[in-house]
Amino acid sequence: MSAGRILYIEDNPQNMRLVRKILVHAGYEMLEAENGLTGLDVANAEQPDLILLDINLPDIDGFEVAQRLKASEAMALIPVIALTANAMVGDREKSLEAGCDGYLPKPIGRQDLLDTINEFLSLRSLMSA
Ligand code: MN
């Protein structure tokens, strides 16, 4: 059994490859989508345990993806962690306002990523226990 199923919505192949390496090595099953609308479809069809969400996407942006996830009864409870390269002031707040449950600035650090995922997945299993 995998440690959990995680969907990563990301259009940058290098980030996708890095996160895939980290997650697979840590025992997670990874689902991938290269744009926001595909990400919403995969999330709906696969019901992952957690979603990692890039903010700068080629179609709709990550804020919009988060809003649509949280507006959907079927997906609202899936934890969403925003990942963004923009060290812009307010990015974190904008992500949280859009409905993201957590936020990680890029560049992605292996331990930060795993700690954050673990935190949300253990919260989730506590709630469903
Ligand atoms: Mn991007």
Features:
single chain; 129 residues; alpha/beta; five-stranded parallel sheet; 47% helix; 19% strand; binds manganese (II) ion
Describe it for me?
This protein is of the alpha/beta class. 47% of the residues lie in helices and 19% in strands. The chain contains five helices and five strands. A five-stranded parallel beta sheet has the order 2-1-3-4-5, with helices on both faces. Helix 2 runs parallel beside helix 3. It is globular and about 35 Å long. The protein starts with a strand and ends with a helix. The model has no long low-confidence stretch (mean pLDDT 93). It binds manganese (II) ion (MN). Manganese (II) ion binds next to loops.
Break the fold down into its secondary structure elements and pairings.
Layout: E1 5-9, H1 13-25, E2 29-33, H2 36-46, E3 50-54, H3 62-71, E4 80-84, H4 91-97, E5 102-105, H5 110-128
Parallel strand pairs: 1-2, 1-3, 3-4, 4-5
The protein binds manganese (II) ion.
Task: Give a quick rundown of the structure.
It contains five helices and five strands.
Name the strands of the widest sheet in spatial order: 2-1-3-4-5
Number of helices: 5
Can you give the mean pLDDT? 93
Low-confidence stretches: none
Distance between the termini: 18 Å
Number of strands: 5
Tell me the strand percentage band: 15-25%
Helices and strands, in order, run as EHEHEHEHEH
Helical content stands at: 40-55%
Largest sheet: 5 strands, parallel
Shape verdict: globular
Structural class: alpha/beta
User: What is the gyration radius calculated from CA atoms?
Assistant: 13 Å
Listed once per kind, the bound small molecules are:
manganese (II) ion
